[in-house]
Design a protein that fits this description.
- The protein has eight helices and seven strands.
- By secondary structure, it is an alpha/beta fold.
- It folds into three domains: 98 residues, DNA polymerase, domain 1; 72 residues, Orthogonal Bundle (Helix Hairpins); 66 residues, Chitinase A, domain 3 (Roll).
- A five-stranded mixed beta sheet has the order 5-4-3-7-6.
């Protein structure tokens, strides 16, 4: 019976049948899975949910699971072929493969688009990135690993919450790195035209109200700041005092008139 075979025994049997040259890449992955899942648990207890959890666990340690889990996928495929497990689980181990277009593009020069940011904004992003990577992300990973220790994955709400929190932090880290890697620091902003580093006063012609915005690069945050990639920021770029621009927002189309432009700093 499939349920009589433990995970530990199945892994040992599989490794024994491998050629010596294959073992260095296979053994660490399967042993890691075995320790995490439980070597004494039945092989047939493995299911899709737990495979997803294991891949999240690998990712939480800073390793890209899509780049190193091929041995686990092959092990599960072999177990299915031998009818040791009742379900084809190999497909639930996600392996990232390069598309034909990605393979063809390897080695080709890529045009990089620069992103205008203020010097203050660039420095703020560096500080925020340092905190996220040195404090926030390690704390989120630790919370995720503590929650993952509970093997009852069906009702593990703390794990799901920790996983989502880590994902939010990682997305912000990726956003900041993307901005910094393509940043072009704007030291001098023109007072004649709206651009990064300028404060612009606009009048909403529909509501007859004035608003003041400071235009900043993508990723920069703060009260009264709007990104040049936001609908309002994009619409205002390069305009001068007196220009009227139309901005499409969820509530409809608003018309703004540029009343004043001044350089920040």
């Amino acid at each position: 019976m499939a349920g009589e075979l433990t995970v530990g025994d199945a892994i040992r049997n599989y490794i024994t049948a491998l050629a010596p040259t294959e073992r260095p890449t296979v053994v660490p992955v399967l042993n890691s899975f075995g320790r995490w899942f439980g070597l004494e648990r039945g092989l047939a207890e493995i299911d899709a949910v737990q495979l997803e959890r294991f891949q999240d666990y690998v990712a939480s340690s800073g390793v890209d699971p899509t780049s190193r889990l091929e041995p686990l996928r092959t092990f599960l495929s072999d177990a299915r072929q031998k009818k040791l497990i009742p379900v084809a689980l190999a497909s639930y181990v996600k392996i990232k493969r390069k598309s034909a277009a990605e393979r063809q593009s390897l080695g080709r020069p890529v045009a990089v688009q620069t992103i205008d940011v203020t010097r203050a904004g660039f420095e703020q992003l560096q500080v925020e990135l340092q905190k996220l990577e040195s404090d926030d992300l390690p704390a989120a990973i630790a919370s995720m690993q503590r929650a993952a220790a509970d093997k009852d994955f069906r009702e593990n709400a703390p794990y799901d919450a920790a996983k989502e929190h880590r994902a939010v932090i990682q997305r912000r880290i990726d956003e900041i790195k993307e901005t910094l890697s393509h940043a072009s620091i704007v030291d001098e902003a023109s007072e004649d035209r709206v651009g990064v580093g300028t404060r612009v006063v606009v009048r909403d012609l529909d509501e007859d109200e004035e608003f003041s915005y400071t235009l900043v690069g993508p990723g920069e945050r703060g009260m009264g700041k709007i990104s040049t990639q936001s609908p309002v920021g994009r619409a205002l770029l390069d305009h001068i005092v007196g220009d009227v621009v139309s901005v499409t927002v969820p509530a409809g189309v608003h018309k703004y008139r540029v009343e004043k432009i001044e350089r920040v700093g």
